[in-house]
Amino acid sequence: MSDFRGPTRFNHVAMSMAPDTLDEQNRCDITAFYTEVFGWEEYPTMTEDRKRLVMGVHSYDQFVFLIADDEPMKAPRLDHFGLAVDTIDQLHEVLAKAKAYAEKDDRVDIIDYDVEDHGVLKLHNFYVGYLLPMMVEVQCFEFEKG
């Protein structure tokens, strides 16, 4: 692996979707879920009916970009992008919000909480999907104290 540690960082995820999945009702559904569960916000000035939906992820330069395409992205269930939280309590809080949303909308797809033990690191995680081509994995890194 290169020792390049440049100034780059992730700033967005872009996914194509069928134009009808970005109509007014679906945009409202998508925005409601991701706002309630993750705290994302729609950038309404970027929204175009059946063309585009952009949601900010807690910072102007972090966002999810959904773009209409006649040949939209198709992804297997476990294709995902990851979000990190600082504490295990925060991870459980987000999971609880996703499960509460699933109680009122059966389109929510959750792969429940798990811990992968790698010795010096425990990776706490769960996955959730809702109307987008890719799921979101929420992770918390717990490092061994020593």
The dominant shape is globular
Q: Roughly what fraction of the amino acids lie in strands? A: 35-45%
CATH class reads Alpha Beta
Number of domains: 1
Instruction: Determine the CATH superfamily.
Output: 2,3-Dihydroxybiphenyl 1,2-Dioxygenase, domain 1
Number of strands: 8
What is the structural class?
alpha/beta
**Rounded to an integer, what's the Rg over CA atoms?**
16 Å
Q: Would you identify the CATH architecture?
A: Roll
DSSP helix fraction: 10-25%
Largest sheet: 4 strands, mixed
Arrangement of strands in the largest sheet? 1-4-3-2
CATH topology: 2,3-Dihydroxybiphenyl 1,2-Dioxygenase, domain 1
Roughly how many Å apart are the termini? 27 Å
Order of helices and strands: EHEEEEHEEE
- Total of DSSP H or I helical runs spanning 4+ residues: 2
Report mean pLDDT, rounded to a whole number. Answer: 95
Low-confidence stretches: none
Account of the 3D structure:
The protein is α/β, with parallel strands linked by helices and 146 residues long. It has a single domain (12-143), classed as 2,3-Dihydroxybiphenyl 1,2-Dioxygenase, domain 1, CATH 3.10.180.10. Helices cover 22% and strands 38% of the residues. The chain contains two helices and eight strands. A four-stranded mixed sheet has the order 1-4-3-2, covered by helices on one side. Strand 3 and strand 4 (62-68) form a beta hairpin. Helix 1 packs antiparallel against helix 2 (88-104). The longest helix has 17 residues, at 88-104. The two termini are 27 Å apart. The relative contact order is 0.19. The model has no long low-confidence stretch (mean pLDDT 95).
